[in-house]
Amino acid sequence: TQSANMLLRKIVTSSVLPFAARHGMKKDLFPLSRTLSLSLCLKQDKSCEPSEKLDLDAWKKVMKSGLQEEVSETVSEPKELSSLAAARETLEVWRLAGRLVPENISEEQLKTFMECPSKSAKKKYLKYLHLKELYKKNDKRKMEEKRERKLKEEEETPKTDETSNKSPFLCLWSKTMDKAYSWRAAQSMIFGQPLVFDMSYEKEMSFREVSNTVKQLVLSESSNRRSVDPFHIHFCNFEDDSLYHREFIKHYREAWGKLLITVTDQCYTEVFPKDKLIYLTADSPKVMKTFDHNKIYIVGSVVDKSIKKGLSLARAKRLGLETAALPLDNYLLWNVGAKNLTLDQMMHILLTLKDTADWKKALEFVPKRKYCGFVNKPVSELKKTLDLINTLKFGKRQEEVQKQFRKSYSKKYKLK
């Protein structure tokens, strides 16, 4: 009977229990087991008497336990994957489907990918990461080629040339210039005119726009440090462990704590008096005529590719601050594009105005693709030159530029 029981248990666990677990046949399972047990017993031991009976209650317990184990195995097979692992699996599927997906992606990038509101936004973000990865690989390849060329040139050049090229004067010059720039920046923190960057626009921007903003701020800080009379830069409304902070640490690394600038989480209205603050925004109705050395100018640290109009103007009005816009129409024949400038361009313009007070020199930092030329002639002669520029440069767009010219100079014609 023991051998028959062992054999019957193997048969039930291998054939009957999986079948019952898949089809949910619990009720009809036990009569089947009785017939199987009796038939096997009769086949193996013909001499067993009908009075000898198997313990059916014990078999019920055995089959119930086996059924529960089988069902638990079937339930536990599809393990619950974490959200990051599921995102990585979707990326692998998209890569196999031939979409633009980066080869290596970090956890932060995965989190931003999961936070994208729509499928099209996810595709655009992955395409951006893919192109960024390609650019990095291309730059790395170019650097390796450049290094190989330098090594070949060093091998080909004689030893006398190598000793003459390595001049200690250049190293000494670079070190002394760095010290001079640092000394100027340190003096500006005590005696310099403050320039405020408003760092409260993180929620209005995407991750890509924040990274572009930080790149422009890095360029602005370097150009300010190398100027003759630098500003005392203030980063106001700056929160620790924010996206701005992380991007700055990526660029500066250990030098972030050694920068000669002021970083605070306070608002500029708490640091400076309101009557001295002027918020520079392209949406302001008031035009800036001259640079005031006694005022404190505020620049919004925002890169807005969708061009949300009135964002910085609304913030300045809410705080009750004076606003101003650069006089681009008074000095430039504006052609196409928005009149929003990058942060490093604004820094160059303000530094030039501070040193020279010459608008023409300052507005040379405006991209030349956005304007045709400077307004340095009477309006009657300007129309002739503008028509000539239109015929040579714009072709079909001549009528559109003429309409724009009429709108911008209609007030001057009325005065005449």
UniProtKB/TrEMBL annotation:
The keyword S-adenosyl-L-methionine applies. The lineage of its organism: Eukaryota, Metazoa, Chordata, Craniata, Vertebrata. It is an enzyme of class 2 (transferase). It catalyses: adenosine(9) in tRNA + S-adenosyl-L-methionine = N(1)-methyladenosine(9) in tRNA + S-adenosyl-L-homocysteine + H(+); guanosine(9) in tRNA + S-adenosyl-L-methionine = N(1)-methylguanosine(9) in tRNA + S-adenosyl-L-homocysteine + H(+); an adenosine in mRNA + S-adenosyl-L-methionine = an N(1)-methyladenosine in mRNA + S-adenosyl-L-homocysteine + H(+). It is found in: Mitochondrion. GO terms for molecular function: tRNA (adenine(9)-N1)-methyltransferase activity; tRNA (guanosine(9)-N1)-methyltransferase activity; tRNA binding. CDD domains: Trm10_MRRP1. Residues 142-164 are annotated as: Disordered. Its EC number is 2.1.1.218, 2.1.1.221. Residues 181-373 form the SAM-dependent MTase TRM10-type domain. GO terms for cellular component: mitochondrion; nucleoplasm. InterPro entries: MT_TRM10-typ, MT_TRM10-typ_sf, Trm10_C_MTase_dom, tRNA_m1G_MeTrfase_euk. PROSITE patterns: SAM_MT_TRM10. Keywords: Coiled coil, Methyltransferase, Mitochondrion, S-adenosyl-L-methionine, Transferase, Transit peptide, tRNA processing. The keyword Transferase applies. Gene3D superfamilies: 3.40.1280.30. This is tRNA methyltransferase 10 homolog C. One of its GO terms (biological process) is positive regulation of mitochondrial translation. It comes from Sapayoa aenigma (broad-billed sapayoa).
